[in-house]
Each structure stands twice: as C-alpha cells, then as structure tokens.
Design a protein that fits this description.
Length: about 450
C-alpha cells in the first residue's frame, strides 16, 4: 500500500524543511508540499513532529557466544527493540573465534538472521586469524556483499589477532576496497594487569576498569592507526571511550591516516561510578572498553559535536544480570562484557544531546544515521530522505516525556542500564521500506520484513 507522511518537519544531516513524503514500491518517490495522492494511500499526519531518516546502528551483537555463555536477544527481539527505538538498519558483528571456520561462521550468522529480523541488517565479518585459507574465504564474503571486516586487538587467543595477522587483514582490505573496524586495546597489557589485580585479591567488578586503563586503549588505537597508515587501508575504531584514545586517533587523522571514529551510547551517558556500585551491582555495567570518567565523557561529547567522532553506535551486547553477569562474582574477568542499548540509543542521544543542548540536530542525524550509511556502503539507499532512497522513516515526537525501564523494554534482558532515566522524545511511527512497523512505542508490523543488505566496496 502507498504511504504518505504529511505535515512533518523533515530533518536530515544537512537540511531542514517542511514537506510531505510519498512512498510506493518500498522507496520514496515524491517529496513536496501538500502532495496529492491516489485513493487507498495510507496517510500519517506528522504535524508538530520531526521526520528523520531511519537510524543506522553500525555496531551490534545479536547472536554472540562469548565468555562461556550466549547473548539473550534473538533477531526477533533485537530487531523489534531496534525499531521501537527508531533504528531501521543495524550492522551486526559476525564474531567467530580463532577456532571456527570463517565461512561456516558467516553462514551461521546469516542463518540466525534470515527470516527473523523485522528491520534491515548487514554484517561486519569478524577476522580472528589469518592463515593460508583466510584470504580466499574473505574474498568470497566480500563477493556476497559484506564489505567490512572486524578485528580485535584484545581477547587474545579467542577473538584477537596478532600483528602479522593484522597487517595481512589490512593489506587485503586495501586490495578489496573494504573498511576494517577494530576493537583497539593492548591485549598483552590487559592480561598482565588482570593477573596482578586478581593476585592482590581485587576480584570485584570495580576492578574491571583498572585492568583496562585509558593508556591501554590509547596504545591500541595508536597501534591500529599505525598499521592502517602502513598499508594504506581504511580503518574505523569502534567504541572509543576516552580522551587519551581520542587524542591518539586525532593525531593519526591529522597526519592523513584514513581513520573513522565511533563512540557508543553507554560511554556518552554512563560513567565509571556505575561500575563501582556495591553488592555486585557494578557488574551490570562491565563492558570493554570500560566506562570512564566524566572528563572523558565531556571530551567525547565535544568531539561528537565537532564531527571528529563520526558515528554513535551501541555495541549492543545483551547479557542477563542473573545467571550471566553473576558468572563473575568471584572474578571480574569472568563477567560477560556488554550492555543492552539498541532500543535506547536514539532516544538517549536525542535527549541528552539535542534536547539538553549538547548536540546540533543535524549532527545528531549525521552521527546516528547518515555517516554510518556512507562509511559502510549503504548511502543513499539508507541514511537520508530523498527520492529513490528506501522509505525508512522515523516520525519523532519531541513532546513525549517518559522514563526508561526494564519493565517496559523489548530487549530480552533482565535489567536496564538506564533504569529511571528521562527521555525527551520518542518515535511515534517507524517504517521499513514503506511499511509501518511501529506506532507509539509498540511493534505492530511484520516480524520478518528485514532483509540482508548486500553492499559494494566504498571507493
């Protein structure tokens, strides 16, 4: 059925105007004032509301075997939560380990999502080793339309690559024209600090951050940037969390290294004090890199506003407090790392950025949608509102007031890291390729509508 969204204020990464949007055949076909439409068109009155392009989350874990357990969301729950929060496309990490066959891992992740996602999705292909078969396997993945890789400079012996492997991944990426995303820390230093802290009897979640201090992340960021520079590849630092790592990334960018920077919503909203909460409550906030100081948080907001930080993702990694986070009660290194956020990212970024005066509304759209689409080969199909783009649209009501809570979330975890936090707006209508999937915070659409987005390398 054709769709008309009328009377709204359209806001993209670089423009703002009032007009109607007419959609048919899954795409936007007309934009203009007071559009005349044929009988039978579904009409949505967006008066008093913003109309944003569907938001793109560039860093998501849905299926994630990790630290002896399995993440709690399915593609059904995770994709519906994403849509309720205004995210119409996510890019999931295909996170096979050093012990897994890459093509088998890629096939497994695709099979988990196929027919189970309510929103569109793509993958970053995890590379956890580089042997004599890896290059050919990665070429096959790229031919299938997955044109970004993921490496870890952490989790040594499980996800992590060594320097020779890192060089080979980046050299191949340069040849193929694909981007390499990186978790940038120093795995060996982390291992030494963890062992030292545990030997001193420091076992609680409050010791997670001291085992991964800002110097570890800054060193990993600089190290990755050096390899990107040496190979001429295109790099992307995921979940950058602190001022020291930001300085390292900016130093690389200033000398011409092709390096993009992502931060994630937990580092913008939460600080280290959450992970220091007593009675093991801090375990809810154990993630890597860890939550940092308020000074680091202010540095991230500043860099985001200036456009030095390119994107805001989530690193959505949903693990229950009971039975999963509790695995590390006697040893913080056994706490599954991560926090659920795919449902809350857009509302938190709008509230504590745009509404509270920290972030320009165009930079908000750019960071949460447009720039990720450009970096990862989805633009202009995604990330903007223009004729020919997919009709992924978010009618956003800035007048809404509410609070976040585990009792109302769709994400399949037993707590909210943002319990009780205010939000100053939310999506009232969310569409995926012209079909209404969400109304007023409730999923009402087709739970299988999502499609795998096959991409071309970005020149």
């Amino acid at each position: 059925m054709p769709l008309l969204i009328k009377n709204g204020e359209i806001i993209t990464g670089d423009s703002r105007f009032r007009a109607d949007i007419y959609c048919e055949g899954e795409i936007i076909t007309r934009i203009g004032p007071a559009l005349k439409v044929p009988p039978g068109t579904e009409e949505i009155d967006a008066a008093g509301q913003y109309v944003f392009p569907g938001f793109v989350d560039p860093h998501v874990h849905i299926h994630l075997p990790f630290m002896g357990t399995l993440s709690k969301d399915t593609h059904t729950t995770g994709s519906q939560a994403a849509l309720i929060g205004g995210t119409t496309t996510f890019i999931e990490m295909c996170a096979g380990t050093r012990f897994d066959d890459p093509l088998e891992s890629y096939g497994l992740w695709k099979s988990k999502a196929a027919g189970n996602s309510a929103c569109d999705y793509a993958f970053h292909m995890g590379v956890s080793r580089f042997d004599t078969t890896t290059a050919d396997q990665l070429r096959e993945v790229v031919r299938d339309g997955t044109t970004s890789f993921k490496v870890y400079l952490a989790y040594k012996g499980f996800f992590g690559v060594d320097d020779e492997e890192l060089f080979k991944v980046l050299a191949l990426a340069k040849e193929l024209g694909v981007i390499v995303t990186a978790h940038a820390e120093n795995a060996d230093l982390i291992a030494q600090l963890q062992a030292q802290l545990l030997a001193e009897g420091k076992t609680g979640p409050e010791w997670h951050e001291p085992s991964r201090p800002v110097q570890v992340e800054a060193d990993g960021t600089s190290h990755f940037a050096t390899f990107v520079e040496a190979t001429g590849a295109k790099g992307y630092v995921v979940h950058l969390s602190c001022e020291a790592a930001l300085a390292a990334a900016m130093a690389a960018k200033s000398r011409g290294v092709d390096l993009a920077i992502e931060c994630v919503i937990p580092h913008l909203i939460l600080d280290a004090s959450y992970a220091e909460r007593p009675d093991f409550e801090g375990a809810k906030y154990v993630m890597s890199p860890p939550l940092r100081t308020l000074r680091d948080q202010r540095a991230l907001w500043w860099a985001l506003e200036q456009g030095f930080i390119d994107t805001v993702g989530t690193d959505h990694a949903p693990f229950d407090f009971r039975g999963q986070k509790e695995m590390g009660r006697e040893d913080f290194t056994q706490i599954p790392n991560g926090i659920a956020a795919i449902e809350d990212r857009v509302n938190l970024l709008y509230t504590y950025g745009v509404s509270r005066g920290r972030l320009d509304i165009h930079r908000f759209v750019d960071a949460a949608s447009t720039r990720a689409a450009k970096l990862f080969g989805l633009f202009p199909r995604k990330g903007t509102i223009q004729i020919g783009s997919d009709a992924d649209l978010v009618v956003y009501d800035p007048r809404y007031r509410g609070k976040l809570s585990a009792s109302t979330q769709v994400m399949n975890v037993d707590y909210s890291g943002y319990e009780g936090m205010e939000i100053d707006g939310r999506p009232s209508v969310v569409t995926v390729r012209g079909a209404v999937q969400v109304r007023d915070g409730t999923f009402i659409g087709d739970p299988t509508r999502g499609e795998l987005l096959r991409r071309e390398p970005v020149s």
